Amino acid sequence: MSRREDREEPYEVPVGPPDGATAAGRTGGDDAADASGTDAVHISAPEHLDARHDRGFFGQPRALAHIFGVEMWERFSFYGMQGILLIYMYYSAAEGGLGIDQGIATGIVGAYGGSVYLATILGAWLADRLFGSERVLFYSAIVIMAGHIALAVLPNVLGLGIGLVLIALGSGGLKANATAVVGTLYTAKDPRRDAGFSLFYLGINLGALLGPLITGLLQSSIGFHWGFGAAAVGMAAGLVQYSFGRRELPPQSREVANPLPRKRYGVVAGIGAAGLVLVVLAVMLGVVRADNLAGVVIVVTLVAAVAYFFVIISSRFITPVDRSRMWGFLPLFVVNVGFWSLYQQQFTVLTVYSDQRLDRDIFGWTMPVSWINSINPVFVIVLSGVFAAVWTRLGNRAPSAPTKFGIGTVVMGGAFLLFLPFAGGGANSTPLIALVGILLVFTVAELFISPPGLSVTTKLAPERFHTQMVSLYFLSVALGTAIAGWLAQFYDPDDEVPYFTVLGFIAIGIGIALLLAVKPVLALMKGVR
């Protein structure tokens, strides 16, 4: 630790959940964060950074508006593109698509989603060792925009491949650093911290709500590439706003927490180049193909997760209490994988279901498929306040993190079972209101797991491994997302009962197993709830 760090209060870098986070300071704010249903990796700006008199953005520091904007437009472009991505791949050329086999297409979507969360590790490393969070955020936004432009203007599979690679890398870099930059706007004791992160979270959900609406409308009326183009324009709007406002961000947002020694630059560059060559060779030799991409991402993510866990658990710098807490984190990791492997099927199975099984006719007008993806953000915005009120009223009697994880996974399994009454009904037979109700259950499950996820992860993290623990958490999401794509190949619209039954009861079983193990898990967590 540097002398400067000795003189100042240490940083804790806020990193949001898969789709963002709200946060509360861990100095007296842990309970507030959990009560508000927020994720908080806390982590504070130095005490000498006093922005108390800057209230230019709804009572918050004016610079928050710029991060709010770039994150909102990034989510607009991300979810807008993802809302039409799967049908673009499996629709025929006559319908404006690529004609890819539906099972392969769902696997690609899952692999892409998993790669986004894998890329957060690279984004966090670049920020911590080379460039600082703010710079990585800015250049990641440029990479994302380039990816959307590739999807919009490059033809066929070439545009698909280049676009998805760029968006995955850029989204990982932005996701890993946006909330870290927000954290630098506040001192540890600033009472506005919770509200500021809540406002940031609102921007995320606004983008997620509007993106599928706009891109879906364009896709259904004038074509897929116009939808992808709208995603590119949205990202460009956020980037322009941010490029003018980034100068207002504090210097701490650009600090490199653990600079890489210059003598190691060559070694790191060599490792990076070797990794890139290995990937290219694997593709050229047919080891990595479109039909096994989800499986490859699953294996890579699993290896990375095991390696991360082993590095932390075997470190001589952690205490016996830290080591016990790491073992307590393991069942939460496993359950989190199970949850996200079902939840992320919103972009695979649920897209196919909405396209082929859902009655989207509204007074003679056919609703675009992608609009289904805008339902969940509405429920998140509404129910976050409800959950916050419940957890606040319960106070110390609120369920522990393992209990919340178990309940959320059981509810998620129940959501899959809710598809059964509509199984076998034929094309366009499921009422829209029924799917809206099922997505409401999806959201309830999410709010039991996603908000406490990173919060409990950082509370369990050994002092020297905060960043690695956050990366480990994201690996659980990456693994679940890739599995969601892999599982989707087994979905058959003509024989849905086995699929929804088996996955629903597996999730319920996983959740019940954790609920039965709450006491021993809490014992391993050594006072962390």
UniProtKB/TrEMBL annotation:
Database matches in InterPro entries: Dipep/tripep_permease (IPR005279), MFS_dom (IPR020846), MFS_trans_sf (IPR036259), MFS_Transporters (IPR050171), POT_fam (IPR000109), PTR2_symporter_CS (IPR018456)
Family: Belongs to the major facilitator superfamily. Proton-dependent oligopeptide transporter (POT/PTR) (TC 2.A.17) family.
Record domain Major facilitator superfamily (MFS) profile: where: 67-521
Membrane topology per record: Multi-pass membrane protein
A single GO molecular function term of this UniProt record: peptide transmembrane transporter activity
Cell compartments where the protein resides: Cell membrane; Membrane
Domain of life assignment: Bacteria
Keyword Transmembrane: yes
Keywords for this protein: Cell membrane, Membrane, Transmembrane, Transmembrane helix, Transport
The protein, known as: POT family proton-dependent oligopeptide transporter
Matches recorded under PROSITE patterns: MFS, PTR2_2
Chief place of localization: membrane
Entry-linked PANTHER family: PROTON-DEPENDENT OLIGOPEPTIDE FAMILY TRANSPORT PROTEIN, RESISTANCE PROTEIN MDTM, PUTATIVE-RELATED-RELATED
GO terms for biological process, alphabetical: oligopeptide transport
GO CC, one annotated term: plasma membrane
Transmembrane segments: 76-93, 105-127, 136-154, 160-187, 199-218, 224-244, 265-287, 293-314, 326-343, 375-393, 405-424, 430-449, 470-491, 497-518
Region of interest (Disordered), ranges: 1-37
CDD domains, per database record: MFS_DtpA_like (cd17346)
Species of the source: Microbacterium thalassium
